Amino acid sequence: MATRQAQALGKWALAPSVVALSAWAFVPLALALYFAFLRYNLQDPDNTGWAGFSNFYYFFKDPYFLKDLINTVLLVAGTIVTASQVTDVSPFLQWTLAIIAGGGVCALVQTGTVALRSASSGTTLGLTNPLVSTVEMGASAIVTFLAIVAPVVAFLVILAIAIVVFKVFMKAFAAAPIGRGSRTLLA
């Protein structure tokens, strides 16, 4: 065990690095918060001043904000769900797989959905958007149903194959003569 004097010396030796790392982390955060409340336009740099919460008002008023928020939540949810299902591996591999598999698949599906909606809106001026949304909803319902039913169907198919193989084996075994010098199924 270290003495109290050695512990105190260790704390004083670590203090400069803790202060430097804290400044490195918190100063940019504080500056970002400060600049978030300022009015600044790159096209008119002389027009500056305190904007208060009006910057956030325009941010939340943006029609794409909710869509972007939903996309972000879906990516995070896909990653977390995948990470919760990958067990018995190192945390590095677990989160790497979660980001690639969960987040990547979620991003791929969301990108496909956005591309399909954009193509629909661009080619038909939005007239087929309700049809596209209905097809998307139906497809997701079918995939969800298959994700639940497919393992059960696979189990039943494997069970049926096992029963057929067992019956064929028993029929062949019963048809084979048992006696001295005759060939049996096992010989």
Please specify the SSE layout and strand pairing.
Elements: H1 4-36, E1 38-41, E2 44-50, H2 54-61, H3 65-85, H4 91-124, H5 129-175
Antiparallel strand pairs: 1-2
Question: What would a concise description of this structure say?
Answer:
With 187 residues, the protein is mainly alpha-helical. The protein is flat.
- Regarding quaternary structure, what we see is single chain
Q: How big a fraction of the residues is strand? A: 5-15%
**What global shape is seen?**
flat
Give the fraction of residues assigned to helices.
over 70%
Task: Please tally the helical runs, counting DSSP H or I stretches of 4 or more residues.
Answer: 5
H/E series, N to C? HEEHHHH
Outline the biggest β-sheet. Answer: 2 strands, antiparallel
Report on the structure:
This protein is mainly α and 187 residues long. Helix content is 76%, strand content 6%. It contains five helices and two strands, in the order αββαααα. The protein has a two-stranded antiparallel ribbon. β1 and β2 form a beta hairpin. It is flat and about 100 Å long. 3% of the residues are buried. The mean pLDDT is 84.
Which terms would index this structure?
mainly alpha; flat; single chain; 5 helices; 187 residues; two-stranded antiparallel sheet
